[in-house]
Every structure is written in structure tokens, then in C-alpha cells.
Design goal:
Distance between the termini: 28 Å
Helix content: 55-70%
CATH architecture of the largest domain: 3-Layer(aba) Sandwich
Low-confidence stretches: none
Largest sheet: 5 strands, parallel
CATH class of the largest domain: Alpha Beta
Strand content: 5-15%
Mean pLDDT: 86
Radius of gyration: 23 Å
Strand order of the largest sheet: 2-1-3-4-5
CATH topology of the largest domain: Rossmann fold
Structural class: alpha/beta
CATH superfamily of the largest domain: Response regulator
Order of helices and strands: EHEHEHEHEHHHHH
Shape: elongated
Number of helices: 9
Number of domains: 2
Number of strands: 5
């Protein structure tokens, strides 16, 4: 369950929006000032922050600046939900690194769509980072150890990430029969009996 922190001094809005987000299976907490938000984030870092801009004292722009200055929180996505709807305001928000900028009044369905898209993009980036990490690890160990060809390497990476032969064939634009041959060669070269053993062997070398 994704954790969301609402930062807004409009308590009625926080209550309504919290209830709405919870109905979509999000875990939601709210605070009414930027200092309270920073204290909460240090205690229990959320997966995403939805913040107003205009608040007493420090504002939403200050909040995102503080997050971007801290290596621990620099990647926490921020969505601005605000009455400041001028183009210049949005430009400031995006230049500071916000993921989305919604102007009040807003359609809550649009916010849900934005949330799903943000989390989807984050998941893709994480998977990409994992793939790159895995490639580095496997290149230096399994590839040389078992003398794998480039084709075998490509198939192996997709097997490790859970793709079936048909999906691998589509991804690599080759026949499913060829993928089956690649998988058989991988099993033979690594002395493993099935895909599960092959994946376990790979994980042991990360």
C-alpha cells in the first residue's frame, strides 16, 4: 500500500481528500504546515507528497527545495495541488522538480490518474535500475564463467525477470522455437535443470 502525505492548511480538504484516496487503497496522513511535513517525513518517509503551495510561513516551494537538498528524500515525488494557477507558478513548480501540478478546483479522478502514472513511472525506473545493476553483476561473473553468447545473455536477462518464452520471442523479435533452443543451451551451460534453478544461480552471483 502506497503511503501519501497531504500538506495543506485546509483541514476540510485534507479530510475529504484523505477519505477519497483511502478508497483507492492508499495510506494517507496529513499535516498543515511545512515544518510539520518535514518532521513527519523524517519520522516516516512517504512514497509521495501532495502539497499546497500557499501556506503560512514556509510554503510548498520551500518544502520541495528542502526535499531536493537531502539525498535521502530527493527522489520523493511531489504533486502540487494549489489555487496558484498562473503559468509562471506552474513553471516554478516544475523547475523545482514537482511531478505534477493541479490547480484547485480539481477533478479528483485526474489526481488518481496522476498518482497511478507517477507510481508506474517510478516502478519502471526502479526496474530499469535493477536491470542495469543485474547486467553489471552478471557481465562480470556469469557471462565470463559460462562463456555465454550475446544471444544467450539477452535471453537470460529476460528469463531472470520472469518472462516466458513467447514473451521473450516477441521482445527479441525471434521465433519461439529459437528461444526454446537458447533456454536449453543456458540450462546445459549452467548445469541447471529448469528456469527456477537458473534464476537462483544468477541471484547467487549478484
Amino acid at each position: 500500500m502506497k503511503k501519501i502525505l497531504l500538506v495543506d492548511d485546509d483541514q476540510n480538504l485534507c479530510a475529504l481528500l484523505s477519505s477519497y484516496l483511502v478508497s483507492f487503497n492508499f495510506s494517507v496522513n496529513s499535516v498543515n504546515t511545512v515544518p510539520n511535513a518535514l518532521a513527519y517525513i523524517r519520522k516516516d518517509c512517504p512514497d509521495l507528497v501532495i502539497s499546497d503551495i500557499m501556506m503560512q510561513g514556509l510554503n510548498g516551494y520551500d518544502l520541495i527545495k528542502f526535499l531536493k537538498l537531502n539525498i535521502v528524500y530527493v527522489n520523493v515525488p511531489v504533486i502540487f495541488l494549489t489555487a496558484k494557477g498562473m503559468t509562471t507558478d506552474r513553471i516554478i513548480g516544475y523547475n523545482l522538480g514537482c511531478h505534477a501540478y493541479l490547480t484547485k478546483p480539481f477533478d479528483p479522478k485526474e489526481l488518481i490518474a496522476i498518482l497511478h502514472n507517477v507510481f508506474k513511472q517510478i516502478d519502471l525506473l526502479r526496474k530499469s535500475a535493477l536491470v542495469n545493476h543485474c547486467k553489471l553483476s552478471i557481465n562480470s561473473k556469469l557471462f565470463s564463467l559460462f562463456n555465454l553468447t550475446q544471444g544467450e545473455k539477452n535471453v537470460l536477462m529476460l528469463v531472470i525477470h520472469g518472462y516466458m518464452n513467447k514473451e521473450i520471442a516477441i521482445s527479441l523479435d525471434v521465433s519461439q522455437r529459437n528461444i526454446e533452443k537458447y533456454v536449453s543451451r543456458l540450462l546445459n551451460k549452467t548445469n541447471t535443470r529448469n528456469r527456477v534453478e537458473l534464476i537462483k544461480l544468477f541471484l547467487a552471483y549478484i
